[in-house]
Amino acid sequence: MQIRQIIDKINDNQIFVPAFQREYVWKRPDAKALFTSLIKRYPTGTLLTWETANPPELKGKKKYSSEMGAVKLILDGQQRITTIYMILEGKLPPYYTQPEIKNNVLGLYVNLETLELEYYKKQAMENNPIWVNLTDIFQAKIKSSDVRKSLKARELLTDELEDLIDDNFEAVKSIMDREFPEQIIPVSASIKEAIDIFYIVNASGVNLTDAELALAQISGYWPEARDLFKAKLFELEKNGFVFKLDFIIYALLGVTHSMGSEMRRLHSADNRDSIKAAWERLDKQILDYVVNILRTHAYVDHSDEINSVFALIPLIAYVYGKPNGQLTEIEIKKAVKWFYYSQLRQRYVSQTPQKLDKDLATVKKSPQPFDDLLGLIEQERSLTITEGEFAGRDIRHPLFSLMRWYFKSKGAVCLTSGVSIRQNMGKKYVLEKDHIFPYAALKENGYDINNRFKYALAQEITNRAVLAQVENRGKSDQAAKEYLDSAKTKFPSALSKQCIPEDSALWEMSAFERFLAARRSMLSEELNDFLAGITKMDTANVEVSIADMIAEGEHDGLEFKSSMRWDTKQNCLNKALEKVVLKTIAAFNNGYGGGGTLIIGVDDEGNVLGLENDLSTLKGDDADAYELHLRNLVNAEFGVQYAASNIKVRFHDLEGQMVCVVTVSKGSAPLFVTDADKNGMKVEKFFVRSGNASDPINNPSEITDYISKRFKANA
Question: Measured between alpha carbons, how far is 386 from 377 in angstroms, rounded to an integer?
Fold first, then answer.
């Protein structure tokens, strides 16, 4: 089919693009390359269409009606056809609306002497009639005679050039007669068959991602899907968080199948009901909730502060798995801590689907997923930030995002206006990354591009502060000493809140590199403390709600016991249960974690039972009597010194019932529990935490090996 025929059929509503096709993604270099090939008569590929009188949802505002009869849908080649239409017609094809076109490929010019193609450049093309807009040629806004007249007026037209211009003008116009070899899927094909063909054609190349192909399949069995997804993305974008359609597909795959690869799982129409149900929760609750966590707890105000938005997929999946779609304060803090490290250590910058597979499986299976996810990062990279990591790093490095989040957490302000850097004050007050020592001054002192090492120091993130745009522009090239003196005078805490050394001797140009070294030290120390403190606050600075702990569920650092002495199944006293409590304490002590917490009076499902039955078996009926009995057990088994220094016992009222909370510190020496073997003989057993259970290690050599590794620092 000739290009002019394709254009005519689009204008006559005979050719459409189905909604399951991806968006227009070509950029200017792609358009330039295509028209270069067209003019030089190079191969430009084939066109795959589907002729049907029962089309699926169409792109654009045009709706199919039976009066149209059989129409053609472009399955392969829409990027090329859309580009050709826009440049030849000078407008969008009717199957697209303006907001959908992110890349404007119009404005392509041709040199009628050389047939070179280029986008408009004022210096080369202004007042140079040899350069002509391609669209103007096809829209008959300019003729070859117009070009010749302009050149003749400038005394630039030779006989040879005159003929060349005419020939090249016709060569350009002949594009309309170029043939696109067309393969047609017949009318008899079903929507499912057409989408399958579309998938096969595109899966073999690199034009479409797996997520885009999955979206095409979803759009086939759920035509409204793409528009619904785009509406949500637009809503999130208005609030500063820009995601692409493939992000939505990853989220759907994550919550329905707990994986980030194998997009084929979404292809079957059997997914329709589950996908629609999942999307309803994502749209109405989950996505907004996760974004709000980022804003309120992680100090992330815009998605441009994130190096990989795919770190949100495990968080989305975890929230989705909660029946009420809500996290406890502890869970939020752990999630935020992991999110920070996922960005800092660039967890999803490469091999994203494979890493999501592993991480989503952890979310599904682990009772404490974000602890385990953090462990996966630590297996690859140290979590500790060193001073050396800042050296030569510019603002593209994820350390700068972490710096910005930390500054916001401290209530940092713009150094020149004193306004909080968290406040959204309009476009003029967008946050910028200001040079503390101005580059102009550094350049004069040899820190320019000619010395790569010194140039890197000039651009280093330790030479950056966060300012509002309008303030940064007004600051100009003010010397560091003058600038920082003013900031310290006006806003006394402003420098410390952005980790800027307050020793004025370091503000002199001669001390620039010492300033960098001092700030690296400040930043590494404070950022490490900040990251560690996110969850450390749970047990130190802020008293954690026992209800929140119970809501977390059992994990390697948390255990529930219905009672210490009362057998709830037999409804009688059972002193053997005391030994179970001691095994849990020993396991917490011996584990690789940071100790653990035992809550007595709560069953495995998190139901609060209280201590009433236990208390009925003791001489006293209050918390003091209970603690005395518990400590006597620990004293007898592990020694008074251990019980005094490693065990903390508290009591809390919960749902009208009293529960006992036993906090066990990570031990510096192994603990053994004396227990009876199957023959009734007393033996020493060694217990460790394994997930949410306290399990024995029975093999003596394994025990020796474990102890040598776990307690080697204290050997």
Answer: 16
Distance CA 709, CA 701 (A): 12
Which residues contact residue 559 at a Cβ distance below 8 angstroms, ignoring those fewer than 6 apart?
Answer: 584, 588, 596, 597, 598, 599, 692, 694
Give me the domain span that covers residue 455. 403-517
Alpha-carbon distance values, 155 to 115, 123, 148, 149, 161 (Å): 21, 20, 10, 10, 12
pTM: 0.59
Phi, psi of 683 (to 5 degrees): -135, 160
What are the pLDDT digits (tens) for 344-354?
A: 999 998 888 99
**708 and 566, same structural domain?**
yes
Q: Which residues of 199-222 are buried (b: 16+ CB within 10 A; e: fewer)?
A: bebbeeeeebbbbbbbbbbbbbbb
Residues 217 and 177 in one domain: no
CB atoms near residue 333 (< 10 Å): 22
512 and 551 fall within a common domain: no
Identity of the residue numbered 449: I
Mean pLDDT of the chain: 87
Q: What is the pLDDT of residue 139?
A: 93
Partners of 623 in beta bridges: none
Instruction: Give the pLDDT band (50/70/90) at residue 470.
Output: low
Q: Find out whether 621 and 614 touch, Cβ atoms under 8 Å.
A: no
Gap between the Cα atoms of 480 and 351, Å rounded: 42
SS3 188: coil
CB 78 within 8 A of CB 17: yes
